[in-house]
Amino acid sequence: MKQEVQIYFAPFQSITTPTFHNIYSQYFKGVDKMFTPFFSNIKAGEKLSLKDIKALKNQKENNIEVVPQILSKDADEIIWFAQNCQQMGFKELNWNLGCPYPQVANKKSGSGLLQYPNLVNDILQKVSAEIKIPFSIKCRLGYESKNEFDELIPIFNHYPIKEITIHARTGKQMYGGEINREYFADIVSQINSPIIYNGDIFSLDDFIKFQNHFPYVNSLMLGRGILKNPFLPAKIKGLDLPVDLKPHLKLFIDNLYYAYRKEKNNQLSLLSALKEYWTYLANAFDEPNRVYRKLKKCKSFDAYEDAVNAVFEEYNLTV
Ligand SMILES: Cc1cc2nc3c(=O)[nH]c(=O)nc-3n(C[C@H](O)[C@H](O)[C@H](O)COP(=O)(O)O)c2cc1C
Fold it and tell me: Distance from the CA of 11 to the center of ligand 1, in angstroms?
């Protein structure tokens, strides 16, 4: 029997905050799990910072599980963070082996660590001996080249990793360039842990093509596709959509704005987070560049509200 598709919402620094997860999950269906952006610079043995505690506010949002993520090459740091997450009631911790930015990767962290299988092995050995919370990984096919992954396969297979999400690019490719689906197919057949596919599923059409190619991969992590089209998970799963998408999307974006105003005590800087999100959401409209330009120039709450109203009046949704 064909398994039901599972959809995970990918993490995005400064966009997928607890507030975003909370409001998103009130308005849209179809997501099974959401991941926090990565936490880093955790001091083993010390209390978590207030900022981190705030960012770890909810273990679930409207019944959707939230999974914290750590970026680290230090086993003690990961173990300490895992213990904190477990105490807070989280059901899983995710390890970031995918961050492509040179300032991270050059320090043997994120996707940069994929070039050092012995180090990955040492960390997994220590971590899996100490932590009780299920541990998952989000990674790339390698940093410089996909050959790096060949050495990681027996290592990953040696430990009880709950799930491995693979963004089917190398770190060097950042977020562009060809996805390597052939190599991904190769890996799927060799890894023992359940595999989650990630990369460039932006539409229902992309999903159908993926499914035709990989009928045996039923779990996907979607990032930019959901940011651009928040209805995408429901569309993929064939769930009921609101009769009129535009007012529904408007309600979501307005409530996200009010929630940020409340959370940030009306600090104007909250507009930056919203503008960052609009770099993706603008693509839901028929003239994305114009839409984004309207939002980008807003320097006050009134200007932002007027711009959002104008966008919803003047442009058509294409999703
Ligand atoms: C601005 C930005 C921030 C991101 N932050 C994170 C992060 O904190 N942790 C992580 O694992 N991936 C992060 N990612 C990667 C996404 O989660 C996702 O893996 C990537 O966009 C590929 O999926 P997509 O093609 O569905 O968007 C980030 C990507 C972007 C563009």
Answer: 6
